[in-house]
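The data are quoted verbatim here:
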Amino acid sequence: MSAISAANEPLMPVELIEFLPCETPDAWVAWALENPELLLIDHAQCEKKAASTAMSLMYRYVDHSELLTKMSQLAREELLHFEQVVALMRDRGVAYRHLTASRYAEGLRKLVRADEPGRLVDILIVGALIEARSCERFARLIPHLDPVLAKFYRGLVKSEGRHFEDYIMLANQLSEEPIEARIEIFRAKEAELVTTPDVAFRFHSGVPA
């Protein structure tokens, strides 16, 4: 898989590209371009959920100082992104509303172990996959977007890449054993989720049914 998105922009970290099990299918990109309002609304929900997940980790794992610092930073950045997406929606006359969640995150979380420290390590791996896939999808969309949205998403590629790195660093740091085998389990499920049919478009949905 190339480390460079369509139109050779933007360049993404090689580690991030290699971490993902596959590219986002072209059918999803076309589906996204057919649903610009849903793309923005669900993007806003994803940013809000990412902030919520980071804060939940802060509340649950108070004895890991580096996790607390990284998740605090991540939560603030994700909430800023949420505000920015809502502002873009307002400028474009798109009303924010609740959408049902895609099967993506829940599908990954079903594989999370129940016992600690495995549970925390798995949650961090899931976070890394979500951030990496988000980064890759922003990059896939950028060549097809208007200049304002393309510029915004270009900035998000950089921040999502940093979030991916933080999640992987923490997973490695807090695991009692090498995490490669666990990563492969989640990568296999992630590939299934992004390449199989979905009936409703979402930012992390599979291909159209």
Q: What stands out?
A: The first helix runs from residue 14 to 19. Residues 1-10 have pLDDT under 50 and may be disordered. The longest strand covers residues 197-198. The chain is about 70% helix and 0% strand.
